[in-house]
């Protein structure tokens, strides 16, 4: 008798087909052992070695910013002034 059983929803049918294609997925295996294996392979294939000349060249690329005490103190003062300007005055009780 056709139509005696209700047809599965499209989501249930898609889930059933997906389970046939991918019978089991272990997140622990994938993210635990898989990540370790990928790290081991990538470290084996790509070894980066830097000499002192390379490190000096990398340091030369960094921008120079004034990070002395006077600069930092002025920055803190400027921030405090900005906060004071943005904060509404307190109401006295």
Descriptive notes:
The structure is a single chain. By secondary structure, this protein is mainly alpha-helical. It has one domain (10-86). It is 63% helix and 0% strand. It is built from four helices and no strands. The protein has helices at residues 10-21, 27-45, 52-61, 69-86. The chain is flat, with a radius of gyration of 31 Å. The relative contact order is 0.04.
By helix and strand content, what is the structural category?
mainly alpha
Low-confidence spans: none
Tally of alpha and pi helices? 4
Strand content: under 5%
Q: What separation lies between the terminal Cα atoms?
A: 84 Å
How large, in whole angstroms, is the Cα Rg? 31 Å
**How many domains make up the 3D coordinates?**
1
Shape: flat
Q: Write down the oligomeric state.
A: single chain
Largest sheet: none
Order of helices and strands: HHHH
Helix fraction, binned, reads 55-70%
Mean pLDDT: 77
Give the strand tally.
Answer: 0
Compact summary:
With 93 residues, the chain is mainly alpha-helical.
Topology:
Layout: H1 10-21, H2 27-45, H3 52-61, H4 69-86
What characteristics describe this protein?
93 residues; mainly alpha
């Amino acid at each position: 008798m056709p139509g005696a059983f209700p047809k599965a929803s499209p989501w249930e049918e898609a889930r059933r087909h997906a389970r046939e294609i991918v019978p089991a997925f272990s997140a622990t295996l994938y993210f635990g052992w898989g990540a370790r294996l990928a790290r081991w392979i990538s470290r084996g294939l790509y070894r980066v070695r830097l000499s002192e000349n390379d490190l000096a060249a990398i340091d030369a690329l960094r921008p120079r910013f004034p990070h002395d005490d006077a600069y930092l103190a002025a920055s803190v003062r400027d921030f405090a002034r900005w906060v004071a300007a943005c904060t509404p005055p307190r109401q006295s009780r």
